[in-house]
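Fold this sequence, please.
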Amino acid sequence: MKRPVALGLAAVVSFGMALPLARAAEPPATAAQATENTEKKESTLPEGAQRCVNLSQIRSTRVLDAQTILFEMGGKKTLANRLPRKCPGLAFEKRFAYKTSLNQLCNTDVITVITNIGAGAGCGLGYFEPWVAPEQIGGKPGDGKLEPVAPPPK
């Protein structure tokens, strides 16, 4: 009875080990293909958004919900980072940490939710986009939503 299970496990392990080898056998991308892929990625950047921010420019952060973090920057500028997916525990804890070897925080970096018992979920960042407080464009103070708020009628 134990023998078929062991053979099944060996097959799964063998397949898992063969997959990286199969990928390694693929021909490397040409310089033209790499440039084309980079251009495609850059074209998806929303207008006014940026991929990275300098760590020295970050003054404070504020978690709005499970998917949105505001970064208050030097010069009274605020950037919103809309995570690609909801980050478990972020809305409740409202605390996170990040680690980077550069002097920038980028959309390719991961934040870790800080809980009372230690590290929580790890979540990828999105782009950094300009954000204006809703009360500055006719919304309610503290609204904090990223959706555009219609200006008050004149």
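Strands lie at 52-54, 58-65, 68-73, 77-82, 96-98, 104-106, 110-115, 118-124, 128-130. Confidence is low (pLDDT under 50) at residues 1-28, 147-152.
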